[in-house]
Amino acid sequence: MIAFEKYMNKKIAILWYGREGKSSLHFLLKIGVSSKNITILDGAKKIEWLAKEFEYLTSTFGTDADFNIILGNNYLDTLKKFDLIIKTPGISLYNEKVSPYKGKITSQAQIFFDYYQGKIIAVSWTKGKSTTSTLTYETLKHAGKDAILIGNIWNPMLDYLDIKNLASQKDQYAVIETSSYMLEWLTKKNYISMLLNIYSDHIDRHDGFENYKNAKLNILRGSEHNLIRDEIVENNTFKDKNIRSFWYAGNYFYQEGKFYANKKKVFDTHAIILEWEHNMMNISAVIGVCDIMKIKYKVLEETIAKFKWLPHRMEKIWTYGWIIWIDDAISTTPESTIQAIQTFGKQIDTIFLGGTDRGYVFDDLITCIYDYGIRNVVVFPDSGKRIAEAIKKKDMPAGKKMLGIKILQTKSMKEAVEFAYKNTKNGKICLLSTASPSYSVRKNFEEKWNLFQQYSKALV
């Protein structure tokens, strides 16, 4: 594997060993890096499943599991001894212990963009990244294109890189859902980049709004075609020639139940299953993709007619007692739960959080709960304890009043649903979006959803 020679005989650190860190380790072993040259760094005091993981690696790769492992509060203190550091998006490059070694740091996204030979369609915005990415992917598949869907809440990027035959993917399209964390300092050349908005978000993580804004705008740099919400085009100056805009105005827009491309009607909403206005915006952006790729609008219309909410992803299960019950059980990270909160906004009155504690940082999530005025929070063990403590610590005066969020700590989904039914205001949302995996109290997220549905419907 000549292409990967730069990883050989280097001391390599994997920064955080969650789902993406595990994928990075598998990538290194597949390309022939010795386990003796790999160190796992993680802030958790203990990783319960590590022994079983190493047994799997030994049997799969035929290598001894003699990795170096540094866990706990001081896991960042040894960065200077490594030649290369592969970090996850959750690690901020502005961290005072990390920033001195920025020149040594890479990411799964950067490795994928460096080696992938197909055409990349990158999607980044606050509301609807997952839906828009999936709709774009499904439209490409319906048009007969070879396409893959990766990034953010999906499986790690390197799981989709054909390292044995990189050239085999040259006629493929990769639809990639990207966050500001992934885009920060990413060097790439996209075929199409899609950007909806640049809100004031993740400011602490990016050390200020300007850095956050630059991370978002980085998706547009070096792209062959850019699709941007009309509002961004109006408020910013871009040097790129291939700018197309969408939403209320511009090249592709939605108006009074109809979609337009360059002022010509392409189809209306009569067969669309998707709800909520922001999904109409998502569709108008995908019309732009069709235009660029010379895909007939009829293909998108046929795709939309069958397209539903992603299973367990911001899915309305029913309305009872004037409460809207939303299933977002697949959101098992703080970032994906933040997306759900930003989608439904101040209509959310109650949210269910917590589960397996993987050491996630919940600061941005807690801030989001406060910004959107969510009044009731249910937390499940084990991460729920940290979430509850963080909420109580942040409960500061709003005007002359304390915000006074009601918190229920429980293992029982029945108790959680009954709490939500009692405390959620009429016309408001109860959102199941736990920002943590379920394994500490449930078999999987499907069981979590089944119980949520069962007990909410039992209220009749």
Task: Give a brief description.
With 460 residues, the protein is of the alpha/beta class. It has helices spanning 19-30, 50-61, 108-115, 129-142, 180-183, 203-206, 209-217, 230-235, 277-293, 297-306, 334-344, 363-371, 383-394, 413-423, 445-457, and strands at 12-15, 38-42, 68-71, 84-87, 105-107, 119-124, 147-150, 173-177, 192-195, 225-229, 243-247, 252-255, 258-261, 264-268, 315-320, 323-327, 348-353, 376-379, 397-398, 401-402, 406-409, 429-432.
Distance between the termini: 61 Å
Number of distinct beta strands: 22
Question: Low-confidence stretches at least 5 residues in length (pLDDT < 50)?
Answer: none
The name of the CATH architecture of the largest domain is: 3-Layer(aba) Sandwich
What kind of sheet is the major sheet?
9 strands, mixed
- Strand arrangement within the widest β-sheet reads 7-8-6-9-10-11-12-13-14
User: Taking all residues together, what is the mean pLDDT?
Assistant: 85
CATH class of the largest domain: Alpha Beta
Task: Quote the CATH topology of the largest domain.
Answer: UDP-N-acetylmuramoyl-L-alanine:D-glutamate ligase
- General form: globular
What share of residues is helical? 25-40%
The CATH homology group name of the largest domain: Mur-like, catalytic domain
What is the count of structural domains? 3
For the CA atoms, what is the radius of gyration?
23 Å
Strand content: 15-25%
Question: How many helical elements?
Answer: 15
Question: What is the structural class?
Answer: alpha/beta
